[in-house]
Automatic annotation (TrEMBL):
Organism: Confluentibacter flavum
A GO molecular function held by the record: purine-nucleoside phosphorylase activity
GO cellular component terms, semicolon-separated: cytoplasm
Function: The purine nucleoside phosphorylases catalyze the phosphorolytic breakdown of the N-glycosidic bond in the beta-(deoxy)ribonucleoside molecules, with the formation of the corresponding free purine bases and pentose-1-phosphate.
NCBIfam families: PNPH, PNPH-PUNA-XAPA, PRK08202.1
Taxonomic superkingdom: Bacteria
Protein known as: Purine nucleoside phosphorylase
Chain ranges of the Nucleoside phosphorylase domain: 21-268
Family: Belongs to the PNP/MTAP phosphorylase family.
Pathway entry: Purine metabolism; purine nucleoside salvage
First-tier enzyme category under EC: transferase
Keywords: Glycosyltransferase, Transferase
EC number(s) on file: 2.4.2.1
InterPro entries: Nucleoside_phosphorylase_d, Nucleoside_phosphorylase_sf, Pur_Nuc_Pase_Ino/Guo-sp, Purine_phosphorylase
Amino acid sequence: MIKDIAETVDYLHGKGFENPEIGIILGTGLGQLVNEIEILKEASYNHIPNFPTATVEFHKGKLIYGILEGKKVIVMQGRFHFYEGYSLQDVTYPVRIMEKLGIKTLLVSNAAGAINLNFKKGELMLIEDHINLQGNSPLAFKGVEHLGERFADMSAPYDADINLKFKSIAKANDIKLHEGVYASVVGPQLETRAEYRMLKILGADAVGMSTVPEIIVANHLKLKVAAVSVLTDECDPDNLKPVNITEIIGMAEKAEPDMITLFKELIKTL
């Protein structure tokens, strides 16, 4: 992997991706932040050596480099998922690349279902902790110790200072921002009623199919990390309706302006 990383980084340096400060991963239905960026360079995933390719139809596949609120950022417009058939090393490969390019902070967004029924669809949840239910780890491979400490500490995976800033920005802009625990499952099937009940018992406030692998690797690389979920549906096992993916994406897009405000205002302070 070390050789692959070096090859990818050399390619992106050659494309003009120089010294980004902040990395951003955009989740399902959350691609509009790129419209706020002064784009300097971009590269399609399928042109970047050793990069996976996004296979989900509503995920774009571009790495974007530019200026946002006066800071150099590198943005993943479209992420990778374990359910696409990739290994967790593939899923998190872009995080390793962004760190090698120079980022010190990683901001992540996702679409998630609300397990906590006090949370409503269209609202946002700041992730303060997570539960990894993907049955694997992106650090579970031979030679990981050459890329960072094998036994990565996860006692506080989300940066407390950044989370405090997010809460302050939400209050100042009248944005409903819950705080809670995100459970990451494999997918791509949605949960059964019994699984939603189990997740609630485990202490999850929201559930999704991403984010946790990237957070683990970011902690492995000693990056500052924060993540926000857009709650796209309410997972009430006693009143469960068939899932409508189009509706979920629509709800993410509806809530996206609030998330963009949070990210932009935060980046001003970093």
